[in-house]
Structure formats: structure tokens, C-alpha cells
């Protein structure tokens, strides 16, 4: 359910003069091994992304810069998360519909994924998603 999707606080190394660094390591910080990294950027104001679910894929979504909202939906319950800190990641389990929006200008949405890209893992139709959940 959406209650299994939580904000993971990432390692943050702070230097008064030189800024911050955050680190994610396989099987330590997050409950999966990273096979793919991608990022969304140059998203025009008012645009929405996502609008799909995955059958198998686990993800960690990070606002590497700027801010945006992620709405998670398990078919029963919706939860909205505002991501606006580079030291936090939203862990998204398989079988969750996600909508992304409210992107600030300059926002970078960094995604760590447990699998390589596979279009067959996507559910892109909302009714298909509901059928999949109630199968
Ligand atoms: P999609 O996942 O639908 O984007 P979003 O959820 O951010 O709105 O992907 C958009 C396009 O990019 C789609 O045509 C497939 C392609 N794509 C890849 O080729 N490889 C990838 O790893 C990803 C995430 C997308």
C-alpha cells in the first residue's frame, strides 16, 4: 500500500564552507540494488509527469534540485509528498500509481531504479491499473 512508501533520510555530509554531499549506497541506504539512474529536468511550469504504475520496479525519487509533488495511489489511498530536500528520497514500491507535478523552475527529479528500462513493466492506463490491483 502507499503506507509502505516512505521518505528515506539520506546521508548528509555538511561542510560549513563547502556545502553538502549526500550519498546512497546499494543495499545500505535503500532496500534494493540500483540498476538504472535517470533524471527529469527542464520541465515546463504546470506540466505533469508520471501517470503510470510499475509491476515490479522499485524506485527512489529525489528532488536533486528545486521541488515537486509526488502523489502515490495504491488504488485505495492517495498520499501526496512534497519533495524539496536533496537529502531525502521517496521510496516507491511496485504496484503504486504515481503522478508528479508542481515542478518548480530548475527542478531536477533524480530517480534510482531497481531494474533497467522495460516498457512491459509499465501500466499506463488507470483502469488497467485498477484491474491489476483487483485481480
Ligand atoms: P516515462 O517513464 O513515461 O516518463 P515520466 O514518467 O517521467 O512521465 O518515459 C518517458 C519516455 O522516455 C518514454 O518514451 C520512454 C523513455 N524512457 C526510456 O527510454 N528509458 C528510461 O529509463 C525511462 C525512464 C524513460
From TrEMBL:
Q: Which residues cross the membrane?
A: none
- Show the Pfam families listed in the entry: FdtA
- Superkingdom of the source species: Bacteria
In terms of SUPFAM superfamilies, this protein maps to: RmlC-like cupins
Check the record and name the InterPro entries matching this protein.
Answer: QdtA_cupin_dom (IPR008894), RmlC-like_jellyroll (IPR014710), RmlC_Cupin_sf (IPR011051)
| Ranges of residues in domain Sugar 3,4-ketoisomerase QdtA cupin | 4-133
Name of the protein: WxcM-like domain-containing protein
Q: Which organism is it from?
A: Butyricimonas paravirosa
What lineage does the source organism belong to? Bacteria, Pseudomonadati, Bacteroidota, Bacteroidia, Bacteroidales
